Amino acid sequence: MSAKVPMLAERQPVPVPGAGQVLHADRRRAGRLALLGAALAVSPVLWPGLVRAQAWPARPLRLVIPYAAGGPTDILGRALAPSLAEALGQPVAIDNRAGAGAVVGMNAVAKAPADGYTLLLGDINLAVNPSLYKSLPYEISEFAPVSLLASAPLVLVVPAGSPYRSLSDLIAAARARPGALSFGSAGAGNTTHLAGELLKETGRLEIVHVPYKGAGPALTDLAAGQIDFVVSGLSGARALIESGKLRALAITGDTRAPALPEVPTFAQAGTPLPDMSLGSWWGLFVPAATPGAVVTQLNQAVTRALASSDLQARLAAQNIRPMSGTPAALGQFVQAESTRWARVLERARIQPQ
Q1: For residues 85 and 8, what is the distance between their CA atoms, to the nearest angstrom?
Q2: Is position 195 within any domain?
Q3: pLDDT in tens, 39-52
Q4: Average of pLDDT values for 279-289?
Q5: What are the backbone angles phi and psi of residue 108, rounded to the nearest 5°?
């Protein structure tokens, strides 16, 4: 019969073990330490739930504006950032990435990690660029829509010292001297560019297009008399109008802007241009692979931010109307805009670059 093995509590001190016993104990101890070390080394793999469970957002976000500082998109972004930061509980930093008709900034977002920390303040260029360029470093499918943000009318402005006192004066001069007048834009394919092309088409005019890296530089050159006019977002041009550096001749849309009640619409300006009903619009986008739960949280944060009375007052001062909606609604809107402006570019005989 085998000897009974005593319980732990019953075990008594034993003499110092022999060499064989010491070696056996060391092996067991070394094995336990090796297992513990392996578990610690692979803990991120063994415990992925801890990583996934980390609350989003856990650090500051970056809002990429694909234009230079000073233009309407930049103004909107800087007005939105504090309210969006409050809604998210994390800072939102502005990152101006101007160049190539917003291609530089959009590509930066398309190639960014799809973790919800890099946002794009997109506009009409997102819908137009595929028709404007033969090749792009990104596909429109690389962006996930989050929410519409805002819309605004456009205003045609000339230098304060311009001889053109009305839209009729400008059109008459363009017809009298084909190719002599020039208009600036925030970049090829931007709303300000398309507005100028619509004016050329509907008015049967020959006018030279001068693209800039944003509305701010275009308006600066306009105030200096380097170009003849710009069809700009009102938010970007308003300060220059009020300071007397620019003169507003007409505004897009069906009604006059409360900020400039003395400025007529294009239809009221004496030379009806029925197609000049366009305006600026903006939406929030993220890289396409961003988790749906993060997109939903961002959408909800945008809705809360746009409901801020402080933000609404700031946007109203710039004649920008806040908008919101579902990601799906923004996706459908962009698709419709892509179709519309592809036709405009074709009618204007603007070839892909």
Answers
A1: 61
A2: yes
A3: 334 444 444 443 34
A4: 94
A5: -60, -40
**Residues 246 and 226 grouped into a single domain:** yes
- Sequence-ordered strand ranges (E) for 131-222: 143-152, 154-159, 182-185, 208-211
The answer to the question of residue 215 being in a domain is yes
Which residue reads 């360029």 in tokens? 133
CATH number of the domain that residue 196 is part of = 3.40.190.10
Orientation angle between helical segments 234-242 and 215-223, nearest 10 degrees: 30
Q: What is the pLDDT of residues 68-77, one digit of tens each?
A: 898 889 999 9
Q: Rounded to whole angstroms, how far apart are CA atoms 207 and 92?
A: 40
- How far is the C-alpha of 337 from the C-alpha of 340, rounded, in Å? 5
Q: Give dist(CA 353, CA 345) in Å, integer.
A: 12
Tell whether 172 and 132 lie within a shared domain. no
Sheet holding 143-152, edge to edge: 92-96, 61-65, 118-122, 280-287, 143-152, 321-322
**Range of the structural domain that residue 166 is part of:** 154-251
